[in-house]
């Protein structure tokens, strides 16, 4: 049995979560056995997983200009909702192009998850994450993203990104200073979606 919910408080605060229950009993050898909990005198259902998140985001007013070349070309909103950024591969550097028409934006997220395949086997995870993007000039943008693992008390995958609008081209420099994926990526490529393969990557 799965229960999900989502709501918005005011203009900026979003809450969503879900929980999963099973009607079956368990044993030391198996997460579920062919016996109903109610028949074993253990209630009707047993919680097996729980997820909860709170998020908020704010941004400056979108800049308007007669020269549309100073902002990234419009993209289909649905492709980002589906997790497709238009790149041919997915990885730690995969994200949508910088939007130079938004002078600054800030987002914060809190995530909590609990997994209980059996009452004796409990796995918890909670983290705080955020991102800050701002224009240095109309053609330069800087971004900071990162998260903090509350359970393990450590920072996870902070990332710094610098983007430069080169009219028909765009330059991105991304740096991961610490962690498993420590390193950098430098790329200059054509903006046009039909010419995405025309690029230089280091």
Give an overview in words.
By secondary structure, this protein is mainly β. 2% of the residues lie in helices and 51% in strands. It is built from one helix and ten strands, in the order E-E-E-H-E-E-E-E-E-E-E. The radius of gyration is 22 Å and the shape is elongated. The protein starts with a strand and ends with a strand.
Radius of gyration: 22 Å
Helix content: under 10%
User: Which band does the percent of strand residues land in?
Assistant: over 45%
* Count of strand segments: 10
Largest sheet: 10 strands, antiparallel
Mean pLDDT, as a whole number? 84
Q: Outline, from the CA principal axes?
A: elongated
Strand order of the largest sheet: 1-2-3-4-5-6-7-8-9-10
* Helix run count: 1
Low-confidence sequence ranges = 67-90
Distance separating the two termini: 48 Å
Helix and strand succession?
Answer: EEEHEEEEEEE
Counting helices, strands and paired strands, the structural category is mainly beta
Question: Keywords, please?
Answer:
single chain, 202 residues, mainly beta, 10 strands, 2% helix
Summarize the structure.
The protein is mainly β and 202 residues long. It has one helix at 77-81, and strands at residues 2-9, 13-22, 46-59, 104-118, 121-135, 140-149, 154-166, 169-176, 183-190, 199-201.
């Amino acid at each position: 049995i799965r229960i999900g919910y989502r709501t918005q408080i005011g203009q900026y605060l979003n809450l969503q979560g879900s929980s999963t229950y099973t009607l079956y009993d368990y044993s030391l050898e198996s997460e579920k056995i062919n016996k109903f909990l109610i028949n074993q005198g253990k209630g009707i259902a047993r919680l097996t997983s729980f997820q909860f998140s709170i998020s908020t985001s704010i941004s400056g007013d979108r800049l308007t200009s007669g020269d549309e070349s100073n902002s990234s070309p419009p993209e289909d909103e649905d492709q980002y909702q589906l997790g497709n950024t238009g790149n041919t591969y997915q990885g730690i550097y995969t994200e949508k192009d910088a939007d130079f028409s938004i002078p600054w934006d800030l987002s914060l997220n809190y995530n909590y998850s609990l997994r209980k395949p059996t009452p004796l086997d409990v796995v918890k995870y909670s983290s705080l994450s955020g991102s800050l993007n701002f224009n240095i000039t109309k053609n330069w943008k800087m971004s900071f993203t990162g998260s903090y693992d509350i359970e393990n008390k450590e920072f996870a995958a902070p990332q710094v990104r610098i983007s430069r609008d080169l009219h028909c081209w765009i330059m991105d420099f991304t740096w991961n200073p610490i962690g498993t994926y420590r390193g950098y990526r430098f790329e200059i490529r054509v903006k046009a979606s039909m010419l995405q393969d025309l690029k230089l990557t280091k």
